[in-house]
Amino acid sequence: MKAENTIKSTASDVANRVRNGVDMAEDKVQDSVESLSSRLGSLESLWKEYGDVMIKNAKELSSAAEKQVRANPLAAFGIAFGAGIVIARLLRR
Q: Which of 27, 67, 76, 83 shows the greatest Cβ crowding within 10 Å of its Cβ?
């Protein structure tokens, strides 16, 4: 009877320790998920900001290129023709 009580007590103690370990692991995982979520949120806003800047710069470059083409159409045609030849030769190899 005494051995049975000792075994039950030990089993109960082990079960409690396992539960405590699982609870601690769960808390650590939850903290990690919250931290990761926070970091991803800030990263997302940073990427949106960079994307907006890149779109703005692309529009400015497009506008500047359009002005140059309108001011010098023959030179723009020559540059485009030359670039096409170079690209065609590179792609043949």
A: 76
